[in-house]
Amino acid sequence: MANRVTLDDIARKVGVSKTLVSLVLNGKAEQFGISRKTCERVFQVVKELNYRPNQTARSLRTGKTGTIGLVVSDISNAFYAQMARIFEDLAAAQGHSVIICSTDEDAEKEQRLITVLRNRQVDGLVVSTSQREVSWLLSINKYDTPIVLIDRHLGDNVLAAVVAANRTGGALLARHLKEQGYRHPLVLGLSTSLISSVAERIDGFVDEFKKHGVTCVIHAVGFNSLQSDVDALFANLKALPVKPDCIFAVNNNVATAALQSISARGIRVPIQLGLVCFDDLPYFSIINPGITAVEQPISQMCRKAFELLHQQISGNIDRSNVSIYEIPVKLNIRESSLKKFS
Amino acid sequence: MANRVTLDDIARKVGVSKTLVSLVLNGKAEQFGISRKTCERVFQVVKELNYRPNQTARSLRTGKTGTIGLVVSDISNAFYAQMARIFEDLAAAQGHSVIICSTDEDAEKEQRLITVLRNRQVDGLVVSTSQREVSWLLSINKYDTPIVLIDRHLGDNVLAAVVAANRTGGALLARHLKEQGYRHPLVLGLSTSLISSVAERIDGFVDEFKKHGVTCVIHAVGFNSLQSDVDALFANLKALPVKPDCIFAVNNNVATAALQSISARGIRVPIQLGLVCFDDLPYFSIINPGITAVEQPISQMCRKAFELLHQQISGNIDRSNVSIYEIPVKLNIRESSLKKFS
DNA sequence: CTGAAAGCGCTTACAG
DNA sequence: CTGAAAGCGCTTACAG
User: Cα–chain-centroid distance for residue B267?
Assistant: First the structure.
């Protein structure tokens, strides 16, 4: 079942020691002045016997597995699925692999999954965390596992983090809506609003409207009861203190749930209700009306996070002095927020 | 950096051998008649020192890594992202992890990625293969790595495979379109049409129309130039021998590209052009018109594949006698294919 | 230029 | 009930 041809087999067949073979295979032939001839014999036998190094044995010896863990709330969410692909490519470029973990926004599940990952000796962790406080992650990062947070941070100067310009993005959406004449915004948030990204999107949005004397209504829906919560809200839209004239969906899943409700109820966008979303999706530009959205710089975020992670892995960084990196976002204006002025 | 507390540390502190500790930790205390008292002392020290077993060392010894590889064309594709999530959950239920790999429909890249995975000693592989022939995968499966194909098979009785009822699904769509009065179908296929799933969808579709004397036009677009190829087609729709009155998109990506073009050109669906897709997406039921689609039984497919993989891993199966499992699909009829009869 | 030996951290016969 | 020892397949000082 396992790898049947080992270094020893190669060594025996070539008639050298396995030290020699290992050196050659790891590209240290030159460094150790091993003759070209010997190298060729080694390579030939390696090919002949179809030798593949056992990465598990190598990992045990070197302490590196060439594996990183990607921990997110749900890998099937388009945002994280894209991330997974980018990290996979980044990792593959250096022969590394990525293991995926979905936490379902559950802080304890996240800890369990990360523990499994650490037992597997992953070289590092990229996590879109569901922790409410930094202590647990900090404790494992301090002298041990390299960690970079992505999408969500846990406060200044504790854990390296790469996030989108969430506050700015929220403000951009608010300003746009305000300019279009909307005056009664409803923020469709998540019950997990403690997470920094959502909180900051909402803050940026609300603050911007406040500048103009407009108070936003905020309504939180559950991560695990998204559609039903949204449906319930739409069923009672008129029951709200002020009937909203536009909606801000704080992420792609919320927007999709809202659109589902809107579609089912035959609400006309943007005439009856404006709609904007933080996070862009391919179908937002296909449908009619197109959905105005803030586009996240996923690729840049991943690249930066990967870079930061490798600084930690290679050890050339002072972990007591880390930063939060904020990557600019882009506003894509489409018809869903273009109010016909009356 | 690495795990600093080992079995030896526990053994020393408790004052027993590491054999004893290992036995206790692996739940073999009862079997070896180890006293309850000893067990408790072990567990206490394990907790005290915060011991975590080194999975790499364990894997080297046992030959099992508790890891499976999921190899697909693109993990960011909604279909595969969903699969990833389901496999992750299935694996996690027994403490296993999944490593993702995206092949970009490149058979050689697939082989390279699988080789990396095998070097990592994964216990098994689930692959939506891009191989054109079975030989390579078969050779590694024969006496070595457990493999189950998913979504695409490579012929009868060679490698275990779980696929959707692709031919039936194609036929269902064709019959529906035919009943709606469409007479000039255009199949939007992929240049990778050699893969069984796409080929069978097309076959089922074409055969059904042929029964009624209708010949389908088939147009293949490139996996890596999807949108531009689709755009080019739509720009010259009238140049086709027969102007199509409906389109069959063979997968979700093709459908999205088609919708993009349709939207950009202001083509009205279904009045001017009917549209159906193999593979359902959440937004298909949101937009107006809704898109008629065949829904794939992803969850069932994954469960069956996982089960088959575990039969191979645990060794209780005859690998020379494998089957292709076909899981039924469901037709979701929406407005995009409802022709107004004139 | 090359090899013998130690050791990474486990599990598992084997012996008592 | 418990322990000493071998060994999984590598890499890496160390010695010559």
Answer: 33
User: In one letter, which amino acid is B171?
Assistant: A
In a domain, B46, yes or no: yes
Please tell me what DSSP assigns to residue A334.
-
Contact map slice: A 174-233 vs B, CB within 8 A: none
Per-residue pLDDT, A253? 94
Query: Residue A255 and residue A278: Cα distance in Å, rounded?
Result: 8
Task: Indicate if the alpha-carbon torsion angle B272, B277, B280, B281 is positive or negative.
Answer: negative
Tally of domains within chain B: 3
Any A CB within 8 A of B63 CB = yes
In B, which residues are within 8 Å of A120 by CB distance? Answer: 55-56, 67, 97
Q: What are phi and psi of A150, to 5 degrees?
A: -135, 145
- Interface contact flag, B285 A65, Cβ < 8 Å: no
Identify the domain containing residue A253 by its residue range. Answer: 167-296+331-337
CA atoms of B129 and B107, how far apart (whole Å): 8
Q: Classify residue A291 by its DSSP letter.
A: P
Quote the crossing angle between the two packed helices A7-14 and A36-49, to the nearest 10°. 120
Output the pLDDT for position B38: 86
In a domain, A233, yes or no: yes
String of DSSP letters for A287-325: SSSPPEEEEP-HHHHHHHHHHHHHHHHHT-S-TTS--EE
The single-letter code of the amino acid at B295 is: E
Please, what is the angle between helix A226-235 and helix A252-265, to 10°? 40
Within a domain: A325 = yes
Phi, psi of A278 (to 5 degrees): -95, 115
pLDDT digits (tens, 9 = 90+) for B231-250: 999 998 888 888 899 999 99
pLDDT value at A129 more than 70: yes
Task: Find the CB nearest B116 among A65, A82, A97.
Answer: A97
**Do B114 and B138 touch, CB atoms closer than 8 A?**
no
Cβ–Cβ < 8 Å for A251, A294: no
Coil/strand/helix, residue B221: strand
A145: CB partners within 8 A, 6+ apart: A118, A122, A124, A125
Specify the CATH number for the domain of residue B232. Answer: 3.40.50.2300
Strand C: which bases are under 7 Å from protein Cβ? 1-5, 7-13
Kindly report the average pLDDT of chain B as a whole number.
Answer: 92
Task: Mark whether A112 and A135 lie in a shared domain.
Answer: yes
pLDDT at res. A28 = 84
CA separation for the pair B295, B164 (Å, rounded): 9
Single-letter residue type at A336? S
CB B109 within 8 A of CB B272: no
Q: In B, which residues are within 8 Å of A84 by CB distance? A: 75-76, 81, 84, 100
Task: Quick: pLDDT tens for A218-252.
Answer: 999 998 899 999 999 999 888 888 889 999 999 99
Statement to judge: residues B192 and B271 lie in one domain? yes
pLDDT by residue (tens digit) across B133-164? Answer: 999 999 999 888 999 999 999 987 789 999 99
- Residue B320 has a CB neighbour count (10 Å cut-off) of 8
- Whether chain B has a CB inside 8 Å of the CB on A156: the answer is no
Q: Residue B312: in which H helix or E strand, if any? A: helix B298-313
| Nearest residue of B to residue A282, measured between CA atoms | B256
A172 with A292, same domain: the answer is: yes
Q: Which CATH number do you get for residue B35?
A: 1.10.260.40
Nearest-CA distance A215 → chain B (Å): 30
